[in-house]
Design goal:
about 500 residues; alpha/beta; Amidase signature (AS) enzymes; about 40% helix; about 15% strand; globular; binds glutamine; EC 6.3.5.7; ATP-binding; ATP binding; nucleotide-binding
Length: about 500
């Protein structure tokens, strides 16, 4: 079976029936990385020896007839925000260069315990700040469908690595868009879980009240398999939910018959690219054909979402990034012998000046401003109040419908460099996604076709903790369209 058509579930079947061995599977993916990654730059680091060693161990479990799960032996990659014990973890930023975490993220441990094999760490916008992966301090990732285009961000390395068949799945994080946008731009499936469904412990913080780790996969079934492994309560994360985790992969084929799908008025606004509008309408028509009932819904406070997001997110970023002081982690100007630093204060200042990229500095300044005395009430507190209105809008809308559907991004994948000069135009890429993070509800991007051979995603949104329904609808749509079969030509 060609590598490009393999999925987690098909690979697991081949491993069970001994038509494939884990070392072969891992080796094929490592070879693929060697062949295509110089063009794509999805990986920051490849852990070849470690992966091959784990492949041997996993094969022994298959030989003994007792693989740990359907993820046993499956090659994957982590966004570089995920701490993995003993493996350099930079969050895509120079300031963490050389940082080797003494512990692993809970999600990384859970995936490891399920037998999944990490091939390496994936590129991203530094600290998750961006929509294109161009804000990585280690160079941009390219879109496997067109190397002159961005793969989306901030989990762009994850989307690109899955799309280019360098791994069978990847982890990502979504604070305002960062799983769904790269999934939409790379024809992959991305799930942003309910806030609190997946532990944030050991995932380097961007904006703690919004951060949601989750999977990027080739298919919806794979997404369910990874999600049921990543999700669950974690005593190390105070905001993690104690609700039991359903076995998402067990009941995927229930269909969408009689499901009420809300079509969000506010998502069909003037900035929407005409062909994306066309693809979204076709997707809605397909869902209707499958038996869903469409109904227009409105979330009036969504118009404020992007503004609210950029106040709350930058406020939390400014506080979370305060810990990088040139002493505790990674990069320090002190260790550069040619630079003479007279005082401790100067070590802090110079390490931050040289270690952080321009986008992180911009956000630290904006957030510090929004939190400063005299402005706190006018900006931060106001934004918190508006966030509550947005959350209530969603809860009200879900009294009338089971799911909400709409576009992911207002445009197809844009050209590398096209938006780097104008951060505001970059921020607008997230307009249909940030309201979801503010409300804390789950949402997915599932492939819904192409515009000029560039992938487009459909966004499905569900009430808090209704990931199962979300996956069922995404599965029905995917099986009826099968856009994921159109793999890139790299
Ligand atoms: N693009 C958004 C931002 O730059 C979202 C990032 C994210 O979800 N990590 O803030």
């Amino acid at each position: 079976m060609p590598l490009q058509t393999l999925t987690i579930s098909s690979a697991h079947k081949l491993l069970l029936s001994k038509q494939l061995s884990v070392p072969e599977l891992v080796k094929q993916h490592l070879d693929r990385i060697e062949a295509v990654d110089p063009k794509i730059h999805a990986f920051l680091r490849v852990q070849k020896d470690n992966a091959l060693m784990r492949a041997q161990q996993s094969q022994k479990r298959y030989d003994a007839g007792s693989p740990r799960s359907s993820l046993d032996g499956i090659p994957m990659g982590h966004k570089d925000l995920f701490c993995v014990q003993g493996v350099e973890t930079t969050a895509g930023s120079n300031i963490l260069k050389g940082y080797v975490p003494p512990y692993s993220a809970t999600t990384a441990l859970k995936l490891e315990e399920a037998g999944a094999i990490m091939l390496g760490k994936l590129n991203q916008d530094a600290f998750g700040h961006g929509s294109s992966t161009e804000n990585s301090d280690f160079g941009p990732t390219k879109n496997p469908y067109n190397l002159s285009r961005v793969p989306g961000g901030s989990s762009g390395g994850s989307g690109a690595a899955v799309a280019a068949s360098e791994v069978l799945f990847a982890t990502g994080t979504d604070t305002g868009s960062s799983i769904r946008l790269p999934a939409a731009f790379t024809n992959t499936v991305g799930l942003k879980p309910t806030y609190g469904r997946v532990s944030r412990y050991g995932v380097i913080a961007m904006a703690s009240s919004l951060d949601c780790p989750g999977p990027i996969t080739k298919t919806v079934e794979d997404c369910a398999l990874v999600m049921e492994t990543m999700a669950g309560h974690d005593e190390h994360d105070a905001t993690s939910s104690t609700k039991p985790v359903p076995q998402y992969s067990a009941r995927l084929a229930t269909g969408v018959k009689n499901l009420k799908i809300g079509v969000l008025k506010e998502f069909f606004s003037e900035g929407l690219h005409p062909q994306i509008l066309e693809r979204t309408k076709q997707a809605l028509a397909k869902l209707e054909l499958l038996g869903a009932k469409l109904e227009e819904v409105s979330l009036p406070s969504c118009d404020y979402a992007l503004a609210v997001y950029y106040i709350l997110m930058t406020s939390e970023v400014s506080s979370n990034l305060a810990r990088y002081d040139g002493i505790k982690y990674g990069y320090s100007v002190e260790r550069q012998s040619e630079i003479k630093i007279p005082t401790l204060q100067a070590v802090y200042e110079e390490s931050r000046r040289l270690g952080f990229g321009a986008e992180a500095k911009l956000r630290i300044m904006l957030g510090t401003f929004a939190l400063s005395s005299g402005y706190y009430d006018a900006y931060y507190k106001k934004a918190l109040q508006a966030r509550e209105l947005i959350r209530q809008d969603f809860i009200r809308a879900f009294e009338r419908c089971d799911l909400i559907a709409g576009p992911v991004s207002p445009t197809p994948p844009f050209k590398i460099g096209e938006k780097t000069e104008n951060p505001l135009s970059m921020y607008l890429s997230d307009i249909y996604m940030t309201p979801i993070n503010l409300a804390g509800v789950p949402a997915m991007s599932v492939p819904c076709g192409f515009v000029d051979q560039l992938p487009v995603g459909l966004q499905l949104i569900a009430p808090h903790f209704a990931e199962e329904r979300l996956l069922q609808a995404a599965y029905a749509y995917e099986q009826a369209t099968r856009f994921y079969e159109q793999v890139p030509n790299v």
